Amino acid sequence: MEKWYERFNDAGFTLYNESGEATCVYIVRDKANNVNTTDKWIDVISHANGFDQIIVELFPRITHPKYTNDTEYNRYICWHAAHDDIAEHRGKGHHGKKYAVQCKRVQVKDENGKTHYDYKVTGVSKIR
Asked: Whole-prediction pTM value?
């Protein structure tokens, strides 16, 4: 069965989704309230122990993708823009703010009473 991201036939994007990097970006962007990711790209430096510890570096956005009504396509063009912008920053020797984000996997119930897993951030430390 084909996974949604395989439709783009892009090895880098497939690796991004299968390596857990996409989950790390979700956790930092949507769950780590005291890390301001507004107008920033999140570069995942490392993650360990099922996302218990995530190290990220934030870079200013250079590119602002034109989004469509296709959510999957939007994820793809967003990844491309982030990938390209981060490479440009690194190529110029730029360094972003680094954070260590600690979290744990928790069971939650949605509005329909169904149980599923999500992540809860338990700590954030600025590295520099």
From this structure: 0.89
